[in-house]
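Minutes, project check-in
Item: structure for the 425-residue chain
Input as provided by the requester:
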Amino acid sequence: MSKPSFVLCLFLIYCSTFFGQQYSDFFINKSCRIDFHFCGNARQTSVFLDKVKQEPFWGGRQGHLSTDLNLGDFRFRVLDSLSNKQIYIDGFSALFHEWQSTPEAQITSKSFEQTLLFPFPKKTVTLIIEKRLDLDQWNELFRYSLSPTDKLIQKSAPKAVPVKIITQTASPEKAIDIAVIAEGYSANEQEKFYKDAQKLSENLLTHEPFTKYKSRINIYAIAAPSEQSGISLSKDSGWKNTAVNSHFYTFYSARYLTTTNTFAVRDLAALVPYDAIYVLANTSTYGGGGIFNFYALTAADNKLATQVTVHEFGHSFAGLADEYAYDTDVLDQTYDIKKEPWEPNITSLVQFDRKWKNQLTAGTAIPTIVKDSTKLGVYEGAGYLVKKMYRPMLDCRMRTNKAPEFCPICKQAVEKMILFLTEEK
């Protein structure tokens, strides 16, 4: 064998060993959970560690761990401490980041619970948390050396809560595992929750591309009991004692239903292997919320629950942006029109070549003025902004409840995420 061939052979063996066997080389089949706090205001973002936990299941991907889809307002990277090679990376968003764009963040500082999850390491690793500055620019916020033998890593068993399998089609590493958590269901409403979780499952699986990939979707119903039935309506001082303390009027928006009790949500989700979390709220009041790579939350009994269920999961699962716009939306300062947003379904045109530009038919005007409901284009009004932010179609499930389905660009984004999480290559 010639010297160049020998060198090439060694290189291929190295690549096969490092990349092909990466999961078993560096991780065990449990989760490493990092609990921390985002603290700050409109001008400042800080990270403070709370605790580290080992959880019994890892439901996430086991392939291409050192790459991501470049989604999220933040990301974290896990480096092997000996070689300094990146062995895991993932993007995420946070309610804290949304709050930073509100008027309140201009005059006060707050702390928000936040968590990260990655496979539990076999050896010491370095964790780095970063904030997005632009499409390809990041600012380091936090760095931490984590030893898997640290005696302060918590290994307590998850809460004893009933779990029912709604649908199970594949092993966790080859499936999208969705943990559906009961919120606002009292102990004697357990059967109602199971029926509501079944309806959520059936609804989700009738929408593309989830229908196409239903053989890769597992859904578990976690019947967390609440001391009181229903959901908190904070405007009426109607605060209830519920499993994860969700409430309407997030950032004073009547329809925005969220929870800041992040640690409680993760404690319940830990009962199953999971890629995604859906908090199902026992209320007929209209509303919901979705945070990328964390949770979706929606009202179970509202007449528009079918539409909202899929919309919010578009946010939390695939990182899709809202495509609607109001003149006085509470989040209308979320996007900087001088930068290209990371979400795949909206554009400021700053780097439109990174979005769906190459899918437009020849001669399509940018922006698109002709109001053709079947035409892929560049339509003004998206990301809570009436001007200077654009969407792919006139209508989409990410824009209105009247739209029957995701637009083609949103479908592509969802499918890309499904394949990323379920395929090794």
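Outcome recorded: The longest helix spans residues 3-20.
No further action items on this chain.
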